[in-house]
Design goal:
about 425 residues; alpha/beta; Rossmann fold; 2 domains; 7-stranded mixed beta sheet; 12 helices; 14 strands; about 25% helix; about 15% strand; globular; disordered N terminus
Amino acid sequence: MKLFNVFIPIIFFAFSCSGQNAISKSTAEKQKILAGADRINVYLPLIKGKSVGIFANQTSIVGHTHLVDTLLKLGIDIKVIFGPEHGFRGTADAGEKVGNYIDEKTGIPVVSLYGSKRYPSAEDLKNVDIMIFDLQDVGTRFYTYINSMQDFLETALENHKPLLLLDRPNPNGFYVDGPVLDLKYKSGIGKQPIPIVYGMTMGEYAMMLLGEKLVSEKANTINAYNITTEPTTDTPFHFMVIKNENYTHKSKYILPVKPSPNLPNIQSIYLYPSTCFFEGTVLSEGRGTDKQFQVFGHPSLPKNLYSFTPNPNEGAKNSKLYGQVCYGWDLSGTPEKALAEIDQKIQLKWLIEAYKLFPEKENFFLKNNFFHKLAGNDLLMQQIKDGKSEKEIRASWEPKLSEFKKTRKKYLLYEDFE
């Protein structure tokens, strides 16, 4: 076993799949992207005979089967399940508080870590030997799962519980863009000074949190272990990433399960970094339709624009402008169309145009300054009001965006897009 004499507050395993059966695999099989959870042969020996606490939701699948069900069938003792925003089964509205309960299918206690409780307690972990994190991210700063991961990671380190992070591809991992968060606007939809689109998987992001000492002070003081690149069950660890296979940052990964109720398909996921800005305005961002984050509009906009009427539905029982005819834009279509629309960058043209056309400009942005939290600063709103061009706005994101890109490069586990 090769060891590297480098000391940092983690241990990271970059596992490679066995090549014994490579010759018999078809080209398609060899090129298929496998998420960390799919690589059971790598991490199963590490959890056999141990009691497990697992942070998961409906995206935590192995093939077509939920990770929890898969592990239970393999005889793994799961003591507790932790759930993020939208709940363990992924059906709650955005921002809806989900309490603790017993999962009907498995009989395992589910502890919600979204809302007033963000961290597992010592009581939650008293019978847990090892922790597992497996959530599908969509690669945007204001999507809450990276914050949930940080909280879970800090809890594991502070309580001296080893944590396995089962990595998953980032569907927006093929570019980096947007304003870097001003910590003045740190919130539940932005904790770290990163751009809106940060181009990292959960595993890479966790490595950056640890390497840049962005976790809690207590978590930063844990004892360090050597880094190894070979699987072993006899070397103690605090943190381990189980890598994706056949994934790079050039990949255009299509999620097998929608990550949350209002991101129904890959088109919405591609457009989300650009159209989520409308959540901070009086416009509908498409909640209450079947084209969430692909359509947006308002009753006051010109009547010759695309029209739609949002109404309550599962995952969006309460939102803006329900029952009212809205006029605006329809960006829906194929994944290829969505990719062409964004052109590997955050698009501001829709926000700028909507503001220009809106008759009561003083009422365009919500009064609660939620837009500032989405943007990560108070500058973007003023730039829109001042009529700045997209080129001028993008220039204002430098040099912090370039500085982040340099930091990001240090923690990549997969081939980059450039």
